[in-house]
Write a structure and sequence with these properties.
Elements: H1 8-21, H2 25-61, H3 67-105
């Protein structure tokens, strides 16, 4: 490595540029310490969560599923799906109805839907 004489203002400018672009060693050390502290904290949290999962699994292992309750859940799920399908059909029919009303009214605006909230027609 060779050394060269550099004017002080240029050296200050270059060092200032490096300082503004790169982190100092002290800041870097502090960042590493903070990151290590966070990793240790997360490790403790993961350990406690694992213990909680083990406890919950042990608790659930002794619970039996009530067939009557499971049947009610299945019925509720089936009814919810059937209701969703039926409501989708109702909404599609409503769109078709209003499109037919627009065509029958012969309005110049294609695809417009009448304002039903005011009780009038468009």
């Amino acid at each position: 490595m060779k050394r060269a004489l550099v004017p002080a203002p240029l050296r200050r400018a270059v060092l200032g540029w490096f300082d503004s672009r790169y982190i100092s060693r002290a800041d870097h050390r502090q960042d590493v310490k903070d990151a290590l502290w966070e990793v240790q904290t997360l490790a403790r949290e993961v350990t406690s969560l694992r213990a909680e999962v083990v406890e919950l699994r042990a608790r659930v292992a002794g619970v039996a599923l009530d067939p009557a309750r499971a049947g009610r859940w299945d019925d509720a799920h089936r009814l919810a799906q059937e209701t969703a399908v039926a409501l989708d059909g109702v909404l599609q029919n409503e769109v078709l109805l209003w499109q037919a009303v627009d065509r029958a009214a012969g309005s110049g605006e294609r695809g417009s839907i009448p304002d039903r909230t005011a009780g009038g027609t468009a």
